Amino acid sequence: MSNRSNGLGQTEVEGVVVKTTDAAVLYDVDGGNEVWIPRRVILGGGSVEEDDADLSVADWWLKQERLL
């Protein structure tokens, strides 16, 4: 997973949104490595749509999921 911290408790994760629900987005981070990310931990999560890229995700959640 390629990412970079913005220094504000969030990290920009490179990838693409594959699918969305009201509560989460399915995010492809490595061309086949997919992870469900709750909208509540994504900066601007309420407006994320399919085919969006490069999400800013809360560091605490990435650490909890061992993605950071």
Total beta strands: 5
Instruction: Report on the biggest sheet.
Output: 5 strands, antiparallel
Order of helices and strands: EEEEEH
Instruction: Give the overall shape, derived from the CA principal axes.
Output: globular
Structural class: mainly beta
Strand content is 35-45%
Low-confidence stretches: none
Distance between the termini: 9 Å
Overall radius of gyration:
11 Å
Mean pLDDT: 90
Share of helix among residues?
A: under 10%
Could you state the oligomeric state of the chains shown? single chain
In DSSP terms (H or I, runs of 4 or more residues), the helix count works out at 1
Description:
The chain is mainly beta and 68 residues long. The chain is built from one helix and five strands; from the N terminus they run E-E-E-E-E-H. It has one helix at residues 59-64; strands at residues 3-5, 10-20, 24-28, 34-38, 53-58. The longest helix has 6 residues, at 59-64.
Name some characteristics of this structure.
mainly beta; 5-stranded antiparallel β-sheet; globular
Short description:
The chain is mainly beta. It is built from one helix and five strands, in the order E-E-E-E-E-H.
Q: Which SSEs are present, and which pair or pack?
A:
Layout: E1 3-5, E2 10-20, E3 24-28, E4 34-38, E5 53-58, H1 59-64
Antiparallel strand pairs: 1-2, 2-3, 2-5, 3-4
